[in-house]
Structures are given as C-alpha cells and as structure tokens.
Amino acid sequence: MADRLTPEQRSWNMSRIRGKNTKPELLVRSLLHAKGYRYRLHGASRGIKLPGNPDLVFAGRRKVIFVNGCFWHFHDCKVGQHAPKANAEFWETKRARTRDRDASQRRQLENDGWEVLTVWECELKDMSAVEKQLELFLTAG
C-alpha cells in the first residue's frame, strides 16, 4: 500500500491539527459577533482559568460554549463514529479518554454554576439551526 504514512509522517500531520481558532470555531465566533454578542476566548474569565478551556466564555451570563470536532470528541454522528483502521486500539483509547475528560469538565463547570453548550462540527452544515440554538442558549435564564 503506497498511500500508507510512516509514523513520522503521521506524527507530523497530527501535530498540524489545531485546538484553537479552528474553522468551525471561527464560524461560530463570527456569527455571534455579528449578532452583537461579546465574549472571551479559550477558557479565560476575569483571570480565572475554567475547566476544559471553553472556546467562548460569556462571563456576565455564566455561560460557556465548546465548538467540538466530531471525530476528535467521539460525537454520535457518522464522522464521530468512524473508527480508524490503522492503530485502531490507540485511537479508540485516545478518543474515549477525550470523551470522558469532556464529560468531567462539563460536570465541573456546571457544579461551579456555569451553563454549558456544545456545538458540534456536523451541526454547522445548517447555520440557521445553529443560530437559533445559540440564541436560545444565550437568552435563556
């Protein structure tokens, strides 16, 4: 199989995948900014580091938003349930840890009085539905 990557090539590719300022995150940020919402980025709220480094923090509202990639965070959509064939056990373990860590961090935030919304990458195919979801989340309570 000529299209297989060496471990070094795979490592290089994986090192280029960003955790902040991703295209899905920028889409959500742009939408919210255009609607007049202001927020802090990546888990900072008035000098306090929040569990999980939420992508968007609305400190005055005590609300945070995570914008998650379906594959990386093991979403229940088609992309999130794709199981890589190469090094399958490694990926299963890594993604399961990420899912468990996400749940733990969400519980911590909620226990500290924060409301949490997760926007999944696959949901961004219907931006009008995402806009409604965000509006409901940010105006409720």
From TrEMBL:
Top-level lineage group: Bacteria
Annotated EC: 3.1.-.-
InterPro entries: DNA_mismatch_endonuc_vsr (IPR004603), Restrct_endonuc-II-like (IPR011335)
UniProt entry tagged with the keyword DNA damage: yes
Gene3D superfamilies for this protein: VSR Endonuclease (3.40.960.10)
GO process terms (BP): mismatch repair
Keyword annotations: DNA damage, DNA repair, Endonuclease, Hydrolase, Nuclease
Pfam family, one: Vsr
GO molecular function: endonuclease activity; hydrolase activity
Entry's family note: Belongs to the vsr family.
Function: May nick specific sequences that contain T:G mispairs resulting from m5C-deamination.
Name of the protein described by the UniProt record: Very short patch repair endonuclease
Species assigned in the record: Arthrobacter globiformis (strain ATCC 8010 / DSM 20124 / JCM 1332 / NBRC 12137 / NCIMB 8907 / NRRL B-2979 / 168)
